[in-house]
Amino acid sequence: MPETSTPPSRVVLIVHGGAGVIVRDQHTPALDADCRAGLTNALRAGHAVLQQGATALDAVQAAIVVLEDAPPFNAGCGSVFTHEGVIEMDASIMDGQTRAAGAVAGVTIVKNPIRAARAVMERSPHVFLAGKGADQFARERGLEIVDPAYFRTEARWDSLQRELARDDEDALATPQLGTVGAVARDRDGNLAAGTSTGGMTNKRWGRIGDAPVIGAGTWADNATCAVSATGHGEFILRHAAAHDLHARMAYKGESVGEAARQVIRNLETVGGAVGLIALDARGNAALPFNTPGMYRGTITETGQITVAIYGDE
Amino acid sequence: MPETSTPPSRVVLIVHGGAGVIVRDQHTPALDADCRAGLTNALRAGHAVLQQGATALDAVQAAIVVLEDAPPFNAGCGSVFTHEGVIEMDASIMDGQTRAAGAVAGVTIVKNPIRAARAVMERSPHVFLAGKGADQFARERGLEIVDPAYFRTEARWDSLQRELARDDEDALATPQLGTVGAVARDRDGNLAAGTSTGGMTNKRWGRIGDAPVIGAGTWADNATCAVSATGHGEFILRHAAAHDLHARMAYKGESVGEAARQVIRNLETVGGAVGLIALDARGNAALPFNTPGMYRGTITETGQITVAIYGDE
Asked: Which residues between 250 and 309 in chain B have a beta carbon less than 8 angstroms from any beta carbon of chain A?
C-alpha cells in the first residue's frame, strides 16, 4: 500500500484526481504532464484562497472547480459517459465545523457540480438532491449552466464505445474509475472535504456511486478529520468508508494515518480497489491507496507542492 | 426520551412506521387501530418467514412489504406527494452477514420499493440506483410494476394541498415525516436492516433523504447491529446515524441500547427530530426516539408482539 510521505503538521490542502489502474504505460508524456499540471493548479487555487484568509470550505471548492474544469479528470468537463451516451455527474461537500453538508447526483447542465453541492448545503433546507430536480435547483440559484456538450471529450466518448463493444453487465464489475476530491484546513483549524465525479463509464440505471454520499465518499468533522474517497464506489458505500475513518479516530483514538490505512486495508480484504485523502486538524495528511496509482498532491502553509501519480512515486 | 422496554435476548424482529409529531389528537380510533394492525401484520409476516427458517434479510423484506402495502404508512401505497404532485419513493436494504447492500431513490412505478432495493443488491453490480434508471432496472428484473395511481391516497393528496397553500421553502424545514423500516435476526444469528419511504410531503428538486443512504438510514453488520432510522432525514444524513451507532458498538464497546440512546441524544442536540430501531446479534432491542411518538413494534422468537405509537406507551 504505497503512501505519499508528506511533512507532518504543515499540509493545508490535499487533492486527488482518482485512484485506479494508473500505470506509466497508459500515459503519454503529454497526458502525464497535463495531469500533474491540473493537480498543481488545483493546489495553487486552494492555497491562494486560504492565504486570503478564506475558509477550508472555500479552498476545497476552489481546488475542485479547477479539477472539474480540467479535461483529463473524470469530473465536470471530461466526465465519463453513461450507457445511454450522456453525462451525469455527482458531487458532495461537507463543512467540518458545522457538519453541514450538500450533495447532488445525476446533474447534467451545471458547469461545476461542486458549486451545486455547496448551494444545496447553504441555500436549501436539504442535503441531497438528484436528477432533473437538482439541475433545476442549480438553475434557480443562479449557478452557471452549460450545454451538456460542454462536458464532452473525445477520449471519454471513445472509452464508452470500447465498453459498449464488449457490452455485458460483468464489465460493470471491473469499472473504469475516476473522481476528484479535496480536503483542506484553514487558519482557524476548520476542516472541509469535497468530492466530484462523472461516475463510471457505461454506468446504467441511474447508478449513484459513493462520491455524493455523505459518510461514504465525503466526510468532515473538525474533531477528527476531513476525507475524500475514490475508487470502486460500491465498496466505499458498503463500508461507509469516510465516516468509518472518522469513527476510528473519534472512538478508538487512532491517528489519521492509522485510521486511513485500516480503512483501505479493510476494503482491500473484500476486493475493493480504492484510495482516499485525509487531513486532520493539526495538518497531518494521509493519502493511502491499494491501486497501482492515484493522482494526488499536497500543499503546505508555505506553498510547498508535492504531486504524484504512480504507486512507486 | 421514551423507549419501549422489551424483554432482552429474545426479540427477533423490530418494525417502525415512522417517528414524528404523532399524538393522540391526530388519530381517530379507526386510524389508531389501522396503524396498530399494520405494525402487527408486518411483525407476523416477518416472524412467519423466520419460523420457516428463512434469513433475516427475507424477514426484513416481508415485514416492509406489509408496511409498504398498508395505506396509513408513508411508503409504497400511501406515500406522500412531491411539490409537483407525484410520488417518488426511496428504499434500502443491507445484509449484516456480507455487508451487501442495495438502494433505490426516486422510483415511481415499483409496487414494493424494498424489493427493488433487494434486487439492486443481489442482481446488479451496483449498490444505489436512482430515478428512471432505477424504475427501468426493476422492470427488467421482473418486479411488479404498477400505475403510479396505485400509490395515491386522498389523505396524502390533501396534505400536499395544505402544504402548497402555505407554500414557502421554509415549510420544508419543518417537514411532514414518515418512513417504515425493519431489523431482524435469524436463527443463524445473521442480522439485516431495511428502510422504505415516500420521503417528505411537498419535497422539491429531487430531494433524497436518509432512507436510501447506506450508513444514514440503514446499516447492518453481524458483528454489531442492524439499524433503521426515521425522522428528519437531513440530520440523519449529516450524522451518518446508522453507521455511527454501529461504530460506537464496534470501536467503543457500547451496548446497542447505549449506542442508540447516544445517537438520538446527539441528533437532539442539533435539533434533529428522529427515532430508530436497532437489534444486536443476541436479540437486544433498542427503539429510542425524541419525537412525541413513533409507530413501532417488536416480536420475540415465541411470537410475543408488543406494538406502540405514542411516547407515553
From this structure: 250-252, 270
Alpha carbon distance B89, B134 (integer Å): 11
Length of chain A counted residue by residue: 313
Nearest to B57 by CA among B102, B25, B104: B102
Q: A215, B243 in Cβ contact below 8 A? A: yes
How far A304 CA sits from the closest chain B CA (Å)? 33
What is the pLDDT, as a whole number, of residue B25?
82
Take residue B13 and report the three cell numbers written for it. Answer: 424482529
Mean residue pLDDT of chain B comes to 93
Work out the pLDDT band at B17, boundaries 50, 70, 90. very high
Q: How far apart are CA B228 and CA B9, in angstroms?
A: 19
Interface of B with A in 162-201 (CB under 8 A): 169-170, 172-173
What is the CATH topology of the domain spanning A11-99+152-310? Glutamine Phosphoribosylpyrophosphate, subunit 1, domain 1 (3.60.20)
Q: At which residue does the C-alpha cell 461504530 appear?
A: B247
C-alpha cell at B77: 401505497
Cβ-proximal residues to A164 (8 Å cutoff; 6+ apart), any chain: A83, A202
Over residues B64-76, the pLDDT tens digits come to: 999 999 999 999 9
User: Rounded CA gap, B196 and B88, in Å?
Assistant: 11
What predicted TM-score, i.e. pTM, was given to this entire model? 0.94
Distance CA A198, CA A79 (A): 5
ipTM of the assembly?
A: 0.93
Question: Any chain A CB within 8 A of the CB of B204?
Answer: yes
Supply B217's cell numbers: 438510514
The distance of B276 to chain A (nearest Cα, Å) reads 18
Give the residue extent of every domain in chain A. Answer: 11-99+152-310
Decide: B122 and B102 in contact? Cβ < 8 Å.
yes
